[in-house]
């Protein structure tokens, strides 16, 4: 970064309190001369007892009225001291709130966010896949079922079991507050009977959203790919980083989140993603999930999350600091250029022994060991500069919980 924080003071405000929020605070620590402000409804384990930021909890901050009122007060107050303010949402609902109410904060936030119409397209899977179709991006065969069609869909889908089922928007308030036996973010069904049983349970919960039914794409966790990006206000992609997940999480509430990622270099794939994002007018951070289909040799796009995700700290090991990219653009107005993650490194959110026990590919386990041995290894929550005994004990307990989660919930997905 050519300019320093002391030359033109700026304040980062982080919205959220999960691993993503903590990783974001670590990234700002590298480039910013002030502590970021972290705002959330309640503190979570990843951000407890930390000295990397100033924590402010606000009851009801994830609701429209409270969010608009309280964020406007914070922005107005900090604007008295700091020349510029950047805001980084670390969850879908905070991003949605910012996108919907951005005009309420006119002139107070330097960075821009995804347009509301495009956000609604990405959130609605059938509209999103129509967008992929239009721009030549491959995606799994998909069937969209309305609430009244959930049970009959078992006989209507144009492909065979096994299948993958997702709520139309797993982060929508209606689904987050729905309660039923077997609830997950993503469901895997090997047969019609297990599908029907879960759908009957979902129907009793009163959840009224659509469900997305997709063909299961063969391959284990290591067939997945994740791409993290940043696009400026003109829709130009300024950073792209590719990762190969080698292990996912399996606890119901976190199923599908990545537990370990090796950053990869594939300029052709990155350029294809870059063109797609620029063609659709994407703005802000992006977190793209894809899967490599060995049968067809194609990368199939699952979704675009319009913010960085819990695993996004893997990008730092690839040689990029996404908060630096943001500030170079929005704060320091540096000329356009696009950076790519070029270094190979291992990131994880689980103990090393979990990786070596549950990663099935021996070559990937060997590579992971070599990366750890050579110091090319990181975990979001392991920040030596933020050490204190209380935090150490909480984080240790957090990692110990991963042993239990994998022992209880792990299952083979490689069909």
Describe what you observe in this structure.
- The protein has three domains: 10-113, NAD(P)-binding Rossmann-like Domain (Rossmann fold, 3-Layer(aba) Sandwich), CATH 3.40.50; 141-215, ATP-grasp fold, A domain (Dna Ligase, domain 1), CATH 3.30.1490.20; 221-409, ATP-grasp fold, B domain (D-amino Acid Aminotransferase, Chain A, domain 1), CATH 3.30.470.
- The protein has 13 helices and 16 strands.
- The chain has helices spanning 19-31, 64-78, 92-101, 116-123, 125-134, 173-176, 192-205, 267-280, 314-317, 322-330, 352-358, 362-373, 389-409, and strands at 10-15, 37-40, 54-57, 84-89, 142-145, 163-167, 187-189, 211-215, 224-231, 237-248, 258-264, 284-293, 298-305, 339-340, 346-348, 377-379.
- A hairpin with a 4-residue loop joins strand 12 (284-293) and strand 13.
- The longest helix is centred in the C-terminal third of the chain and has 21 residues, at 389-409.
Instruction: Please report the distance between the alpha carbons of the first and last residues.
Output: 47 Å
* CATH fold category name of the largest domain: D-amino Acid Aminotransferase, Chain A, domain 1
Provide the gyration radius in Å.
21 Å
- Percentage of residues in strands: 15-25%
The sequence of SSEs as H and E is EHEEHEHHHEEHEHEEEEHEEHHEEHHEH
What's the shape?
A: globular
Sheet with most strands? 8 strands, mixed
Can you tell me the number of structural domains? 3
| Stretches with pLDDT under 50, minimum 5 residues | 1-7
Specify the helix fraction band: 25-40%
CATH C-level category of the largest domain: Alpha Beta
How many strand segments?
A: 16
In CATH, the architecture of the largest domain is: 2-Layer Sandwich
Oligomer: single chain
Could you tell me the mean pLDDT? 93
CATH superfamily of the largest domain: ATP-grasp fold, B domain
* Total DSSP helices: 13
């Amino acid at each position: 970064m050519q300019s320093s924080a002391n030359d033109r003071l700026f304040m980062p405000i982080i919205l959220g309190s999960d691993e993503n929020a903590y990783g974001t605070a670590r990234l700002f620590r590298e480039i910013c001369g002030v502590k970021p402000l972290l705002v959330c409804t309640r503190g979570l384990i990843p951000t407890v007892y930390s000295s990397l930021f100033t924590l402010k909890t606000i009851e009801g901050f994830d609701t429209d009225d409270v969010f608009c009122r309280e964020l406007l007060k914070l922005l107005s107050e900090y604007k008295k001291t700091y020349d510029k303010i950047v805001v980084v949402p670390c969850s879908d609902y905070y991003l949605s709130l910012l996108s919907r109410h951005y005009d309420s904060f006119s002139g107070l936030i330097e960075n821009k966010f995804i347009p509301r119409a495009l956000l609604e397209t990405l959130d609605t899977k059938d509209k999103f896949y129509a967008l992929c179709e239009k721009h030549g991006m491959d995606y799994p065969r998909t069937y969209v079922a309305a609430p009244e069609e959930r049970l009959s869909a078992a006989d209507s889908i144009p492909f065979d079991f096994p299948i993958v089922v997702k709520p139309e928007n797993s982060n929508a308030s209606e689904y987050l507050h729905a309660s039923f036996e077997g609830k997950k973010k993503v469901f895997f069904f090997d047969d019609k009977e297990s599908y029907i049983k879960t759908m009957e349970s979902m129907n009793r919960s009163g959840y009224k959203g659509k469900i997305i039914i997709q063909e299961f794409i063969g391959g284990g966790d290591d067939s997945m790919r994740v791409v993290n990006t940043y696009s400026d206000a003109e829709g130009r992609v300024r950073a792209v980083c590719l990762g190969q997940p080698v292990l996912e999480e399996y606890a119901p509430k976190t199923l599908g989140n990545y537990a370990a990622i090796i950053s990869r270099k594939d300029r052709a794939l990155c350029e294809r993603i870059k063109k797609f994002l620029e063609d659709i007018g994407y703005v802000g951070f992006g977190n793209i999930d894809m899967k490599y289909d060995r049968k067809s040799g194609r990368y199939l796009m699952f979704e675009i999350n319009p913010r960085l995700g819990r695993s996004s700290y893997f990008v730092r090991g690839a040689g990029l600091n996404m908060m630096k990219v943001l500030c170079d653009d929005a704060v320091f107005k540096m000329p356009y250029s696009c950076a790519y993650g070029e270094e190979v490194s291992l990131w994880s959110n689980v103990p090393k022994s979990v990786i070596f026990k549950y990663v099935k590919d021996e070559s990937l386990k060997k590579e992971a060991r070599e990366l750890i041995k050579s110091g090319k290894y990181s975990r979001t929550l392991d920040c030596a500069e933020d050490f204190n005994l209380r935090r150490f004990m909480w984080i240790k307990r957090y990692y110990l919980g991963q042993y239990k989660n994998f022992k209880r919930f792990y299952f083979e997905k490689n069909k």
